[in-house]
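quick one before i forget lol
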Amino acid sequence: MVQNEKKFPEGFLWGGATAANQMEGGFHEGNKGISIADVLPGGKERLHVLNQPGFNFEIDKEKYYPNHEGIDFYHRYKEDIALFAEMGFKAFRMSIAWTRIFPNGDESAPNEEGLAFYDRVFDELHKYGIEPVVTISHYEMPVNLVKKYGGWRNRKVITFFERYVNAIFKRYKNKVKYWMTFNEINSGLIMPIMGLGFSIQKEEDRYQPTFQAFHHQFVASSMAVKACHEIIPDSKIGCMILFAPVYAYDCNPENVIYALQEESFFNYFCADVQVRGEYPTFINRYFKEHKIELEIHDGDLELIREHTVDYIGFSYYMSRTEKKEKTEQEKAHGNIIPGVKNPFLKASDWGWEIDPIGLRISLNKLYGRYRVPLFVVENGLGAYDQVEEDGSIHDDYRIDYLREHIKAMREAIADGVDLIGYTSWGCIDLVSASTGEFSKRYGFIYVDKHDDGSGTLERRKKKSFFWYKEVIVTNGEKL
């Protein structure tokens, strides 16, 4: 029930968020297959790979792949979950590695060792009363499906995904209530390698395969929603989008309409299909102008219309400011999508603009458009942390960042937004998805692991650990 007052509702799902490929490790253990994340090198080279055409999805023995070991959650999950419990987590957002359940993706039967591992993780979470919030596909696609079938551009992958979701729904129907289908599904517009499972080739137009792949994911997502509701009747299954509100640089109508178009295209296209159950009207002009003709099978649109998600999970890290004509000097290069620099905002160590009020704006925009419950499943500050001589880590900058974003959520709730939870990203330090770095730290828990692969993997509580514990125990009253 929506509460129009400045406090978080009872039962609010406070917690933290992670992804299997960024923390588990156990690269070749438990009969695990190779995923997309396993072939992405660490360091700044990863950004080059993600943005350039023609990637071959091969492991180069001369390069370092930090995801192979991650932070070794595969062996240390009990220790880590105990720390989450000490902070008082009500929920833990995690993902299942598709390659642990179906190592190649196209097998007829699931891998028991992989299923058993997540049984142990879920049991450990429930021991402490922590609700698992599970992302089904979080940049974990089996590389075999990329090489053999071409990733999500191939309709056959829908069948393999359906087999995968049915296996995990049936196995964990008594252990997991909250699910999400595809992590940051709209990120495929800018990073098709991670989100859609293919690299655009130099000689091909990017638009046709990208949107055909999206259509296949929309069908697969609706199939998952249908199966989840049938197999786990009391479940809640959501979509997950990367949301960054788009501001016009000024009141020039040319810039206002450009910002509106950019926001609709990136923020709302995927959500409209998954929440409203239909392709938005604004995309028709885009398809026409780019000569995109989707292959849509009989029954696809009916399935999408009839099986929409229960809630919207989304990540929020930054806003984006846009103008129709911009110079290279004006661009905000640190942002995921550059836009132009916002003169009113500061930026993180990695150049991501910091905008807490933008989270309130995002919550109001999403709830006003869709009227379904919202769940902030990623938000956090990637920063360099310094370990003092006594072993302490004083990350007041992280506390300040999170405090202001939590205040913004509280204001949005007072605005009338139905917000069910907040899981801060990277509650324990892990591998950065975009840069493959350990030094870009988000966690309340420090992990002794470094960009060159060195480190003991020892866990340490940061100052923010104790602060967040107080936030949770007071249900957001004490910030």
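fyi The chain has a mean pLDDT of 96.
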